[in-house]
Automatic annotation (TrEMBL), chains A, B, C:
This is Uncharacterized membrane protein YeiH. Belongs to the UPF0126 family. The chain crosses the membrane at residues 6-24, 31-48, 68-84, 91-111, 117-138, 150-170, 176-196. InterPro entries: Gly_transporter. The lineage of its organism: Bacteria, Pseudomonadati, Pseudomonadota, Gammaproteobacteria, Pseudomonadales. It comes from Marinobacter zhejiangensis. It comes from the Bacteria. It is found in: Cell membrane. One of its GO terms (cellular component) is plasma membrane. It is a multi-pass membrane protein. Residues 8-77, 93-167 form the Glycine transporter domain. Keywords: Cell membrane, Membrane, Transmembrane, Transmembrane helix.
Amino acid sequence: MFDIVYGLEMIGIVAFAISGMIAARSKNMDPVGVFTIGFITALGGGTLRDLIMDNHPLYWIKHQEQPIFILCLAIIFSYWNRLGRIRESRIVVPDAIGLGIFSILGAQLALDLGHSWFIASLLGVMTGTFGGALRDTLCNEVPFIFRKDQIYASISFAGCWIYFLCQWQLASETVSLTIGLLFIVIARLLAVRYDIRLQRDKTY
Amino acid sequence: MFDIVYGLEMIGIVAFAISGMIAARSKNMDPVGVFTIGFITALGGGTLRDLIMDNHPLYWIKHQEQPIFILCLAIIFSYWNRLGRIRESRIVVPDAIGLGIFSILGAQLALDLGHSWFIASLLGVMTGTFGGALRDTLCNEVPFIFRKDQIYASISFAGCWIYFLCQWQLASETVSLTIGLLFIVIARLLAVRYDIRLQRDKTY
Amino acid sequence: MFDIVYGLEMIGIVAFAISGMIAARSKNMDPVGVFTIGFITALGGGTLRDLIMDNHPLYWIKHQEQPIFILCLAIIFSYWNRLGRIRESRIVVPDAIGLGIFSILGAQLALDLGHSWFIASLLGVMTGTFGGALRDTLCNEVPFIFRKDQIYASISFAGCWIYFLCQWQLASETVSLTIGLLFIVIARLLAVRYDIRLQRDKTY
């Protein structure tokens, strides 16, 4: 079990770090800004999760290869010009992957620590969305909470419950994890593609 | 003692959640935004308090009926149109109640954990004001720290000291709690009514 | 050893508190705002460090004379008009001293708790820069992450590694601490004096 979870975590971290660095580069930040945004996007959600559940040492302190990897990625992103020219619209795919992986892993960790399904789903949503929310707050003029984007947190919430139900009925951890994960990634990409929102904007 | 404290806590949570949801609706946010602002306003102060004092599990994880209740309230607020039309000026009363309850309960918890009066009053002020400060930061264009509003944190600070002095002299927990609480709520409402400020604005 | 570390910590707190209060006064904030910004600038970095490393009780709760001292300083700053007229450019020197002291002390504490050099240098940078970043975010219109200021976090990072190498080679804690500290303060002042940046601004 450990290997799959650890592998997924690394994929999620890379995906979120890349989404953060694309955003930082498209705002023309300097290398320290690129690393800071990448670091916060990739590790912010997990740090909030670990602090709230008192799960010490934090996972990026236990696995220091993760921040080292983000540092290398930030140097490549800052000085390799072709990467600097990636448009911000390319964030969508790595962001959806990071959202899926972190939501499910956050919910799973909360279950392992003995929390209820409801608390675990809240912690899954926080783990999945907090890094991206910080990235958007630091890189955008409009605060993330005002933007009526395509459904985001709701997909993460639904994905966590699908994962719980699968695990309860199927008893196979790996299959449930895959189903929950795929649901979130696919639903998020469809929401962006077909512009699905909770509420239409009337006034702005 | 437990019942009074728990009952007050629930009243404070409902008051702050409502103040957050009124602010979110008046900014025309979608249901996820309404829940997020309500959740952060109601539970932000207590989460900061528990993290700083290493008081785990966090109170809303221990009492999961609290976030469930906020979720139900957010659904009602989002889809019941009459509630959506409440003006932002109606925040004042629930906000004053939340400020009073969370300040006194935060200070009391800090005393219970063996901290000094001064540290307990600081933690009381943080517990009482942090949720509302986050709400104002997320819902307003002007950061809360720039607004020379009617006295707010100072009332919370004074109320904590009144509570400590009463408890020390009267030896009755319930009476002291009530006096401190009433002081903060009434003083805050008077400050808004008669526009009492620490410093007048000259330049803005 | 304790005395030197504690003395340095107090100097760092005073330096950062003053830099925060100058910023708050130059924005014409009221006394509560001056105290809040001073408190957050001086104690924010250490609080983040202690929360991330689960180092409880927090240092300002253990040493309550520190917040009391900041409170007294805030009252003097708010009501003594001559201090209120200090220009914001005067922040540079206390800010450089605070950056140096908190970076090195944060890194040292992380080493003491058994973390690797890399993790310790990250925590040193966080401890040194977080208070100032919060101050700049709360007091400025332009978020700190967008400003291509003279090198700041990079100096803190380099200073931590110089401290580790000195400690490893020289085996004298006090001498290494002094070298790391002086490097950061002097490098920062030179960076401001000669306007050294990681990347020039082209677009803004």
